[in-house]
Amino acid sequence: MTMTHTPPTEDGLSLKFWGVRGSTPVSGPDYAEFGGNTPCLEIRCGTRLFVVDAGSGLNACGLHHRESMPKEIDLLFSHLHLDHTAGLPFFKPVVFNPERTINTYCGNLGGDSAKAALDRLFSPPLFPVTLDILPCTLAHHGFKAGEPLTFADGSRVDTILLNHPQGSVGYRFDHAGKRLCIISDIEHSDPWPDESLRRFVEGADLLVYDGMFTEAEYPRCCGWGHSTWQKGVELAKAAGAKALAIIHLHPAHSDATLRAVEDEMQAVMPTAFIARERQTVEVGEAMERACSTPHLALIKTA
């Protein structure tokens, strides 16, 4: 069963997952349900668009919105590791349009923007061309995680520094009485949950969290900057979050593995689910009912 895509409403807060894998894209029949693209999230505050991260899912996002992308796109990076940046030159309907501007925001470099890092990444011999040949305008903005981002139209996005190699940024969107928190690429602390993070996500209608590892896998991966769904549940419950979505899925975890994990997770938190590529969530709307059957109730395809 699928649902037709519904456009954002003036007063709604919505999230669409264009990429939910971590580290590297995957493909094949074992990944058909949850998807194989690396992180890219589309957030709509009413009709106001934000994009979080430029993983390989950014290509599909651009193709889907070929005719409807605004002239200015605000791209918020959690950080600049390859799985969160590799899709940028393939955002084709945007980067090949001279009328478009992409504003990038980077907050884990002590105030520096992403320009120098992206210019190194997208240049020979690592990449055949440089970004400055693209017809679009790239405007890079740096900030320090913990500072709020404010925009000319009055929009505000709050930020927090996360525990990840070279740092990562979490984002909080408040709109129309609803709260969405994106907390990916984080390694949980001891003790947990971290009090400043708990306050940051307190009362979230939807908390999106990095659950890359199982508890059995995590001890071999300490220091890699990722977490488990169990720690996501602990944070959600401590903060009074109403629903939880797990992203940054391990590239080796098949659909069968993830469905089993989701069943285990929902046994302790019924409003938790594992995110699926191209899944749309209307934040705060009947989350408990929807999360019980996310493959039926939440996926909206174009």
From TrEMBL:
Q: What are the Metallo-beta-lactamase domain coordinates in residue numbering?
A: 37-212
Gene3D superfamilies given in the database record: Ribonuclease Z/Hydroxyacylglutathione hydrolase-like (3.60.15.10)
What CDD domains does the annotation carry?
TaR3-like_MBL-fold
- Tell me the protein's name: MBL fold metallo-hydrolase
Protein species of origin: Methylobacterium marchantiae
